[in-house]
Specification:
alpha/beta; DNA polymerase, domain 1; OB fold (Dihydrolipoamide Acetyltransferase, E2P); 6-stranded parallel β-sheet; binds adenosine-5'-diphosphate; binds magnesium ion
Length: about 675
C-alpha cells in the first residue's frame, strides 16, 4: 500500500463507507494518517455515582436496577435504564437504540462511560459507552482511545479500524524533517509521531507525538509564507487609486464620528492603495471596534475610481448581512455604486444574473462567500479584495484573482486578538493596521460567571430585558461526541425555553446542520426583532451584528477557549444599550474558575489572549481549540506559541543552510490546507 492508495483497498471498506469517508475528506490511505483525532477518551477507574455532576464525563460501575424501558416516538426512541452502586442510583438514557432492552435484560454488573447531563427531571447520563458485563472494561482501563470527528453512518470504531490498517500497511520509515532540526529541538521521529497521535499508549507519548507534528505543520506554513512574502513585496501597483472627495463627504454624513483609530487606519489604507506597490494589509481590531465601516470606505473609494471591489465573508449569513448593510448605506447616502451579492446557495438563475453584471462591469462592489472565486466568475477590473475574518485567505487567493486580471489589493480584516510577537511570525508578509480604540458611545459589557443554579435568575433577567425591547442570545453547550446530539440539544433547549417564556416572546434556534435558506431567514427575523431569543451553537460566532441584542448567555462556558468566548461576547455591546454577558459553568475546578475570571475582569481581547497564554500549560487532551485562528490540523497558535517560535527559528536556519530541503518543502500543498 502507498499513501495514494484508495481506501477501498482496506479491509471492511466498501462503496458505501468509501462515500462516508469521502464526506470527511478522506480518500486515500495518506488522508487517513492525517485525519487526527479530535480528542481522546481516557478510561479512568469507575467513580462513585454520588460524584456525578452536570457536564462531567465519567465512568460508573453498578447493578442494573429495575427494567430497561423504551419510550418516545419512532423518530426518536429513548431507552432508559437505572444503575445503582453503594453511593446512589443514576438514570441512563440512549437514543434510538431500542435493542438495548434485550441486550441488557440479564441484569447484573455493568460499566458505563459518558457525560452526565442535567434535564428537568434531574441528572442523568446520556448515551454512554457500554461495557457489559462489567469485566469488559478492564482491558480498556487507563488507555487513551482516539475520538474522531464523524459523520452520520460512520462510527468511531470504523474510523479507528481504518486508521489502524493504514498505519500497519504503509511504510512510515521516511523522515520528513532534516535530522539537524529534529535533534536540535528534541522532536520525535515521524514514524513514532503518526502512530502516537492516533493510538498513544499514554499521555507522554501523546504530548511527544503531537509536539513533533505541530512543529512540522508550523514549519511548513512559515516556509510557504516566507516564499509568499518574497513574491508580494515587489509587486507593482497596477491599480493606483486616489481618494475620492465623495468618500470624505460620506464620512462627514455618517450618524457617528469615526474614532481616531478608524481614521488613522483608513488613511493608511488610502495611502497604500495610492502608492506604487500593491497593498497586502491586515486590519486588526477587537470585536466591535468598527472594522466594517473602514472596509466599506475602501470598497467605495475603489468603486468611485471606476474599478471593482469584492468583499468575501466566511459564511453565507455574514455575507448577506454585509451585503444588506453596504447596499443600504449606499442607497441612503446616494452613492452611485451598484452592489451585488454572490453566494453558493443562490439559484443558478440568480448566479447567472450576478455573473453577467460582474463581467460587464456594471456591478462595482461584489459581496459574497467563496463563490466569489469559483469557476464561472469573470471580473471586469477587480482592484481590491477584502476578506472578513478569514485570516490568511485573501493573500493566498490573490493568485486566483490575479489569473483573471491584474493583481488586486488585498485587505484582511481580523478580530482575533493576537500578541504582537506571534502576529509578526504569522502575518510576516502583511502590513498591519490596528484599530485599538472602541467607539466612544459604548458602555462596557457587564459580565458574570455563575453556576447552573443561576439559570432561573438569568431567564428572569432576560424577560426583563425583552420587556424593555431588547434581544438575547443563548449559546448551547457543545456536544463533542456527535453532531446529531448537538442538533438535538439545541432544539430541546429552545423548546424548553419557549415554555419558560411568555407567549409573545419568540424563541428560535440555529445550528450548523440547517439549510442555508432557513439560517438566513432566522437571522433576518432576528435582525428585525421578530425573534427575541436566539438559541444557537457557535455558528453565531463570527461577525453577526445586531446592535439591539444586549444579553449573551453561554452555557457550559468552561468548554470553550477564552478567545472564542470573547468572540461570542462580542455579539453584544454593539449599540447604545448596556449589555450583559453571562458565563454559565457547571465546573467546580479551580482552573476553570480562574480562566473564566479573566473574562470577567476585562473586555480587552488583547489582554485576554496574553493572560490565556500565561495560564496555559502543555496541550490538554481534549484540545479546547483556543483560537480557531487559521485552521491548522493540530497546531493552535495560542496553546502552541512556544512551538511556533521554535519553528520560526528553525525556518530561519533552514533558509540559510538547507536550500535543498526548502525546495522539497515548497512542493507540499500545505498552505492551502492550512489557510482555508
Ligand atoms: P467589528 O469590528 O466587530 O466588525 P463592526 O464593524 O460590525 O465591528 O461595528 C460594530 C457596530 O459599531 C456597527 O453597528 C457599526 O455601525 C458601529 N460603529 C462603527 N464605527 C462606529 C463609530 N465610530 N461610532 C459609533 N458606532 C460605530
Ligand atoms: Mg466584523
Amino acid at each position: 500500500m502507498i499513501e495514494q492508495s484508495r481506501i477501498r483497498e482496506l479491509k471492511g471498506i466498501g462503496e458505501k463507507s468509501e462515500k462516508l469517508f469521502g464526506k470527511l475528506g478522506i480518500y486515500t490511505a495518506g488522508d487517513l494518517l492525517r485525519y487526527y483525532p479530535r480528542g481522546y477518551n481516557v478510561y479512568e477507574e469507575a467513580a462513585p455515582i454520588s460524584e456525578a455532576e452536570e457536564g462531567k464525563v465519567m465512568t460508573v460501575t453498578g447493578m442494573l436496577y429495575g427494567r430497561v424501558q423504551v419510550s418516545g416516538s419512532r423518530r426518536m426512541q429513548v431507552t432508559t435504564a437505572y444503575v445503582k452502586d453503594m453511593t446512589g442510583t443514576l438514570r441512563i438514557i440512549w437514543f434510538n437504540m431500542p435493542f438495548l432492552r434485550n441486550t441488557l435484560a440479564g441484569g447484573g454488573l455493568i460499566t458505563l462511560r459518558g457525560r452526565v447531563m442535567s434535564r428537568k427531571s434531574g441528572i442523568l447520563m446520556e448515551h454512554p459507552e457500554i461495557f457489559y458485563p462489567s469485566e469488559k472494561y478492564e482491558e480498556k482501563l487507563h488507555t487513551l482511545q482516539p475520538v474522531y470527528g464523524l459523520t452520520s453512518g460512520l462510527s468511531n470504531n470504523a474510523v479507528s479500524k481504518a486508521v489502524k490498517q493504514a498505519l500497519d500497511g504503509l511504510d512510515l520509515s521516511k523522515e520528513t524533517l532534516p535530522s539537524e532540526v529534529r535533534l536540535k529541538y528534541g522532536l520525535a521521529e515521524y514514524n513514532y509521531a503518526v502512530r502516537g497521535i492516533h493510538f498513544p499508549e499514554d499521555k507522554e507519548v501523546y504530548y511527544h507525538a503531537r509536539e513533533r507534528l505541530v512543529f512540522e505543520e508550523f514549519l511548513q506554513f512559515i516556509l510557504s509564507l516566507r516564499s509568499l512574502k518574497e513574491k508580494n513585496v515587489r509587486i507593482a501597483n497596477e491599480y493606483v487609486i486616489r481618494k475620492n472627495d465623495r468618500v470624505d463627504e460620506f464620512i462627514k454624513e455618517l450618524p457617528f464620528r469615526l474614532t481616531r483609530a478608524q481614521t488613522r487606519v483608513w488613511q493608511e489604507i488610502a495611502d497604500n492603495m495610492a502608492s506604487d506597490t500593491v497593498m497586502s494589509r491586515l486590519v486588526q481590531g477587537d470585536v466591535g471596534s468598527g472594522k466594517t465601516i473602514v472596509a466599506v470606505l475602501a470598497l467605495m473609494n475603489t468603486a468611485l475610481n471606476g474599478y471593482q471591489a469584492a468583499m468575501m465573508a466566511p459564511t453565507e449569513v455574514l455575507a448577506r448581512q454585509h451585503y444588506e448593510s453596504v447596499a443600504g448605506l449606499f442607497e441612503k447616502y446616494e452613492i452611485p455604486v451598484k452592489v451585488v451579492l454572490l453566494t453558493g446557495s443562490m439559484t443558478a438563475k440568480e448566479k447567472r444574473k450576478a455573473y453577467d453584471r460582474i463581467e460587464c462591469g456594471l456591478a462595482k462592489v461584489i459581496i459574497g462567500t467563496h463563490a466569489l472565486i469559483q469557476g464561472a466568475v469573470v471580473y471586469d477590473n477587480l482592484a481590491l479584495v477584502v476578506t472578513d475574518e478569514q485570516h490568511r485567505f485573501g493573500v493566498k487567493q490573490r493568485e486566483a484573482f490575479a489569473e483573471k486580471g491584474g493583481v488586486p489589493h488585498v485587505l484582511v480584516m481580523s478580530a482575533t486578538p493576537i500578541p504582537r510577537t506571534l502576529a509578526i511570525i504569522l502575518y510576516g508578509d502583511l502590513d498591519i493596521s490596528v484599530i485599538d480604540e472602541l467607539p466612544a458611545n459604548r458602555l462596557p459589557i457587564k459580565n458574570c460567571v455563575v453556576d447552573t443554579g443561576y439559570r432561573r435568575t438569568a431567564y428572569t433577567f432576560m424577560k426583563r430585558q425583552i420587556a424593555e425591547g431588547r434581544q438575547c442570545y443563548i449559546i448551547c453547550p457543545m456536544v463533542e461526541e456527535s453532531e446529531h446530539l448537538e442538533v438535538e440539544n439545541v432544539t430541546d433547549y429552545a423548546r424548553a425555553l419557549e415554555e419558560e417564556m411568555e407567549d409573545r416572546v419568540q424563541v428560535a434556534f440555529l445550528h450548523g446542520k440547517m439549510r442555508q435558506a432557513e439560517k438566513d431567514d432566522i437571522m433576518e427575523r432576528f435582525g428585525r426583532n421578530e425573534i427575541q431569543i436566539l438559541v444557537s451553537t457557535t455558528v453565531i460566532e463570527v461577525g453577526i451584528d445586531v446592535p439591539n441584542a444586549t444579553v449573551m448567555m453561554i452555557e457550559n462556558s468552561e468548554r470553550f477557549g477564552l478567545a472564542q468566548l470573547h468572540q461570542l461576547r462580542g455579539r453584544v455591546g454593539r449599540g447604545k444599550y448596556q449589555s450583559y454577558c453571562i458565563f454559565m459553568s457547571s465546573s467546580k475546578s479551580k482552573e476553570t474558575k480562574e480562566r473564566l475570571e479573566i473574562l470577567n475582569k476585562t473586555n480587552d481581547g488583547f489582554k485576554i489572549a496574553s493572560e490565556d497564554l500565561r495560564l496555559r500549560g502543555p496541550g490538554d487532551l481534549f484540545g479546547i481549540r483556543q483560537s480557531g485562528l487559521m485552521d491548522f490540523r493540530l497546531g493552535d497558535v495560542y496553546q502552541d506559541a512556544g512551538i511556533l517560535k521554535a519553528a520560526n527559528e528553525a525556518a530561519d536556519w533552514l533558509l540559510k543552510n538547507e536550500n535543498e530541503y526548502i525546495q522539497k518543502m515548497s512542493e507540499y500543498e500545505t498552505i492551502s490546507s492550512v489557510i482555508i
